[in-house]
Amino acid sequence: MEIQFLLVLIIAFIVLGPERMIDLAIKLGDTLRRVRETWEEVKIQAYMEKVNKKVMEEEEEDYHEWHSEVHDPSQERSPDSNRKGSTSDNASHRTPQGTENKTD
Question: Would you say the pTM of this structure is higher than 0.70?
C-alpha cells in the first residue's frame, strides 16, 4: 500500500512538475479538511437526533404515566358536574337565550 502511494506521487511529480504538484497538494489538503469537517458535522447531527429521540420518548412515557395517575377513569364526571351547582338547580333561573335571570 505504501509502495503504491509512493509510486503514484513519483508519477504525479514527473507528469505535473514541482509547481503544479504543490498546488495539487494544497487543493487536496483543503478538500480532505472539508470532508473531515462535514463528516464530523454529520456524526454530531446524528448523535443529536438520537439524543432528541430518546428525550422525546422519555417525555412521552412520563406524560402517559402522569396522565394515567391524574386521569382515573373510575372518577370520571360528566361535563356538567364541573359547573357550580347542577343544571336542574339553575334551570329555573335561565331565560330561553341561556343567560341567567337574577331574582333577588
Answer: no
